[in-house]
Design brief:
The structure is a single chain. With about 350 residues, the protein is an alpha/beta fold. It folds into 3 domains: about 160 residues, Rossmann fold, CATH 3.40.50; about 80 residues, Rossmann fold; about 80 residues, NadA-like (Rossmann fold, 3-Layer(aba) Sandwich). Helix content is about 40%, strand content about 15%. Strands 3-2-4-5 form a 4-stranded parallel beta sheet, sandwiched between helices. A 4-stranded parallel beta sheet has the order 7-6-8-9, sandwiched between helices. It has a 4-stranded parallel beta sheet with strand order 11-10-12-13, with helices on both faces. Helix 3 packs parallel to helix 4. It is globular. The structure holds 1,3-dihydroxyacetonephosphate and iron/sulfur cluster (SF4). The site of iron/sulfur cluster has 12 residues, from loops.
Length: about 350
């Protein structure tokens, strides 16, 4: 993939520095990070802060109209971005929205693999990411040659990838899943097939337990979700015995605590569950950005983050200031080379046809 025409994710072999897994198929590029431009102005009096924020929002709205643009934001984005976005959702919802929009420009406030997915689903639109450092450590944990080698070991295997993968990886796979639809997609695959699942070990373990299918697991993980420790969850559950415990399947604590969770859900699944549930309190085991969404939609309910440390440094690269820069400078364009896109879109479209 290329970002704003500056990088070639397929052959440069550079370490992207995200996580020690830099692999040349990166889902972002730290060398192009925005530093001071796009950062917050620092301490301001409440009145100045309010005026500053209002001015920022006004400029963004004006540019959006001028560019025929929409802002799609993932549930983990900072609250200021969520509040101005045209749509806030999970990986699946964002892909579906990108596909459906008739806007000319999509500012994708999320991470790189999500923007790539949008770019592949709507090649005639301009997809921008506010910060090129918004990659994904989990996505960087598998690269195309590894998939090809794994396939050789299991020639009849069906390769299923989590949407958290680079386009070049998706191009090697048969089906794509998100945390919302994994079970449905796996159940769609003929029962006699062995399945090779990349890259998330914990989501894969969850799908294996639920579907009872012969699934081989890659050993990737998300560092933000790995920061959620079972011991912390135990303490919270003891302190708040009436709270429902909702867990994202990327959680490192999944294998130990899956049976204790009231529900294992995608980020949007959690929002919908809270809407339906009569419970008043919830322990939320996922990246902390979701707390804003939950508090905004249900101010009458109480949410406890399973860990305050479960912040995603890649998601947090984007700021409202960088959304403004993105719209004013039309940066950073995310594109996928047509040959890769033609193959990578196949597992994505298969998934979208099932859900
Ligand atoms: P969902 O929002 O699809 O549940 O995904 C979580 C995530 O970690 C995306 O990187
Ligand atoms: Fe990737 Fe984890 Fe961040 Fe999601 S939360 S974007 S899986 S590093």
């Amino acid at each position: 993939m290329t970002t704003n025409g500056h990088m070639n994710g397929h052959s440069n072999g550079h370490s992207n520095g995200h996580n020690g897994h830099g692999n040349g198929y990166t889902s972002g590029d730290v060398s192009l990070r925005e530093t001071s431009p796009g950062s917050s102005p620092g301490p301001l009096s409440p009145a100045h802060r309010a005026a500053y924020e209002a001015d920022l929002r006004r400029q963004i709205e004006a540019l959006k109209a001028q560019r025929h643009a929409i802002i799609l934001a993932h549930n983990y984005q900072e609250g200021r971005i969520q509040d101005i976005a045209d749509f806030v959702g999970d990986s699946l919802g964002l892909a579906q929205k990108a596909k459906a929009t008739d806007a000319e420009v999509i500012v994708f406030a999320g991470v790189h693999f999500m923007a790539e997915t949008a770019a592949m689903l709507c090649p005639d639109k301009t997809v921008l990411i506010p910060d090129t450092g918004a990659g994904c450590a989990l996505a960087d944990m598998v690269i195309p040659p590894q998939i090809r080698a794994w396939r050789k070991e299991h020639p009849n295997g069906v390769v299923v990838c989590y949407v958290n993968t680079a386009a070049a990886v998706k191009a090697e796979c048969d089906y794509c899943v998100t945390s919302t639809n994994g079970i449905k997609v796996i159940e769609h695959i003929p029962a006699d097939k062995e399945i090779l699942f990349v890259p998330d070990y914990y989501l894969g373990s969850y799908l294996k337990a639920k579907t009872k299918r012969n699934i081989h697991l890659w050993k990737g993980y998300c560092p933000a979700h790995a920061a959620i420790l079972p011991e912390q969850v135990d303490v919270l559950r003891e302190r708040h015995p009436d709270a429902e415990f909702l867990m994202h399947p990327e959680c490192g604590c999944t294998t130990k605590q899956m049976h204790l969770a009231d529900a294992v859900l995608s980020t949007e699944g959690m929002v919908r569950h809270v809407e339906r549930s009569p419970a008043r309190e919830f322990i939320i085991a996922t990246e902390t950005g979701l707390m804003h969404r939950l508090q905004q939609t249900h101010p009458e309910k109480t949410f406890y983050a399973a860990s305050e440390h479960a912040g995603c440094q890649y998601m947090q690269r984007n700021t409202l200031e960088k959304v403004l820069l993105s719209l004013s400078r039309m940066q950073h364009r995310v594109t996928v080379p047509p040959k890769i896109a033609a193959r990578a879109v196949v597992p994505i479209e298969r998934m979208l046809a099932i859900v």
